[in-house]
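To: structure desk
From: M.T.
Subject: fold request, one chain
Message: Could you run this one when you get a chance? Sequence is below, nothing fancy, just the single chain.
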Amino acid sequence: MKKIFLAAMPAVIALLVTSCGNQPASTEHPAMASKPAAPTGAEIYKTTCVACHQANGEGMPNTYPPLAKSDYLADKNAVIKQVLKGSSGAITVNGKEYNNTMPPQQLSDDDMAAVLTYVYSNFGNSGPAVTAADVKSVRAAL
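Reply: Done. Structure tokens follow.
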């Protein structure tokens, strides 16, 4: 029994040494951890727009206009202004009138660019990319 114990001892010591943190310490301080990735346009859409414009971008009939295949998206600067300022009153989208309120969206220039680029490249749309500089320019003109 003593021979087995003595024979196993080096293996047990080696196991303890390697499992007790003999690894090089991380040079990254927890307070300096990497910044989380910016949300994607799809993520922003799901948290900000989906309640009214729906997951498929088709809106709610007679209540909220569609973003899917929407002729309203033709003027990129007007769309940016719509999202920045919101609106109330009648608008016409794809030949139908909608008369409801859209609150101004409290998004950074980067987040607004991401979500609008997402809308322009999904739901049957094929519009331009929207940049943070585009949003900043429209915001400055308000």
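Reply (cont.): The first strand starts at residue 87 and ends at 93. Let me know if you need anything else for the meeting.
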